[in-house]
Amino acid sequence: MMQLPFEQFPALSAIGISRHIFTQRIPGIDVSHNKAEALARLEKAHREIRKAIGVGDWPLVTAEQIHGNKIAMVDKPLRSDKEFSGCDGIITNQRRVALGIYVADCCAVYIVEPSTPAIGLVHSGRKGTELGVVTNAIRQMIDRFGSDPAKMIVQLSPCVRPPHYEIDFAAKIVEQCKAQGVLEIHNRHVCTACHLDLYYSYRAEKGRTGRMLGLIGLTPTTAY
Q1: N or C: which end of the chain has fewer CB within 10 A?
Q2: Which residues are registered as beta bridge partners of 122?
Q3: CB–CB of 182/149 below 8 Å?
Q4: Which parts of the chain have pLDDT scores under 70?
Q5: Under 8 Å CB-to-CB from 25, ≥6 apart: which residues?
Q6: Which tens digits make up the pLDDT trace of 66-85?
Q7: Which of 3.30.565.10, 3.30.457.10, 3.60.140.10, 3.40.50.300 is the CATH number of 6-218?
Q8: What are the residue ranges spanned by the domains of the chain?
């Protein structure tokens, strides 16, 4: 059986209140198509990876991802999968709900506030970063859930970087988080376009490629 290719981030694993993954390139799947077709071809593998980390039966919440700055909120239990239209990020204080973002050069930004607890997952590329999508997610976690930015842990996924891209929008995301009072920010400085053996890259593969799935969900309490 093929080993499922995904990675996890030590900073998020150490918190111990959530399950998360960032999928890598799936061998043997032709993804040289448009986004919808590529995601359809990857869906089975992504579903198996979700099962492997124990969230296969959790509702999967995704965003339409239009390179904007709107954030969706899940503050009630869900029974089935849901996609929020017109959004590029999702926040929740609900357990047993998996937040998902698909990227292929843009950054998947994971936000965890353990004391609330609450989490967020944001799609932030060049345009979304310019529009402050991560800033909006942090502010809404504060406003809607009472989260404390000083207690937040933020993790940036691999994304495209110079010289393969004109600007370093990941550095701007870090600046935005600091401006909101976030103290713990993890930025791995890994470029997707530099590592086509591990990741899909929209820029390097001229738009016809797959997507990595960034996913996070709050684990149930022992009394759940």
Answers
A1: N
A2: 89, 109
A3: yes
A4: 1-2, 222-224
A5: 5, 196, 197, 198, 199, 200, 210, 212
A6: 999 999 999 999 999 999 99
A7: 3.60.140.10
A8: 6-218
